[in-house]
Amino acid sequence: MVNHSHDKNFIDTNxxxxxxxxxxxxxxxxxxxxxxxxxxxxxxxxxxxxxxxxSVRWAMLxxxxxxxxxxxxCVTACSKENGWKPDGDPRTxxxxxxxxxxxxxxxxxxxxxxxxxxxxxxxxxVDVCPTGASFKRADGIVLVxxxxxxGCRYCMVACPYNARSFIHEPLNDQRxxxxxxxxxxxxxxxxxxxxxxxxxxxxxxSCENDGKGALxxxxxxxxxxxxxxxxxxxxxxxxREDLELNPGVRYxxx
Amino acid sequence: MATTLNTIVNTSLWSMVTIFICLLSGPTQSGERVPAPxxxxxxxxxxxxxxxxxxxxxxxxxxTHKRDKTLRQxxxxxxxxxxxxxxxxxxxxxxxxxIPVNAPGQFCSVCHEYTAVxxxxxxxxxxxxDLDLGTTQAVNPxxxxxxxxxxxxxxxxxxxxxxx
Lengths: 254, 164
What we know:
The structure holds two protein chains of two kinds. By secondary structure, chain A is an alpha+beta fold. Chain A is built from seven helices and ten strands. The relative contact order of chain B is 0.12.
């Protein structure tokens, strides 16, 4: 099941990251004691006038063992936070986040987990976008700039996770922090408006409060973050890891 | 054939003369012109982020500049944020509910209709304050925007002032 050759690559990357960080650590110490010249960003808020930094890689870890089929706390929270509603037609439904049920018929293994934009390091949606509307922010969050989206939907075709959807009808009463409109493509924003304030995404918060505590959010570049510790300690998987897109969303116990 | 052509030339010549006379006499009949819009500014607003004259001409530059900063770089200062505009400039009905800023006769639409400029912002953006957020300007008047420091917006403003 697990693609071992890819896992090897993954370990190599992490080692390289570790060596980089170790190097920075040494230089910090050498520059003077008691003076912090370089602080690893974490979930704490940046100043509002400070741009997103490439030294952060926002990511999510989903523990599939904790996630249960009947619980939809994450989907409900996302819908409320970002102001989208299911329209009842699977062909045109918003795809910000949805619950998937999988079953392996020969052995009877079943699992349930949320699927959303995987915030790839090499996002195919960004590759194919003809106007540059689909883009990846410095901190790894993949977004749609609706000011330049022409609604061609190439990104929807390119996304292997079916994580994007198109808005077919005029809308009003959007949330102030989540503009959405007819003729543009949309997807999970990793609650970028919350992340910028140092708050975790709505789905993660609701999974902790009303759900099963299956989701955690954090910075993969911060070796002391819970997500980094868990990713280093336990075997985790990326969906369609054969495509080598290095998604920021990882699944544990899948 | 030549006669017909002469007639056409004559006719068009006379029409041009008529139009010219109309143009000359036009400004004197000012009652015929479209009246200047009456801008509906809610009275609870104490001053904008910039002087009114500046905002009338340049609000679109501020908004375009800010939208790219916010969306692409995650810079979320209150200065020149569209939702902050809506928070202040949305008018209320008698029952206390907000009227969309792009509704006919409201703050945004009244000038956009007069100048015949299409208002695209609200194809996607919310047209009334988002009360669920709890801390909007309309709810909390203490939340007044302070303009300080040498920000990107200031650089843009200086640039725009120089160009004019």
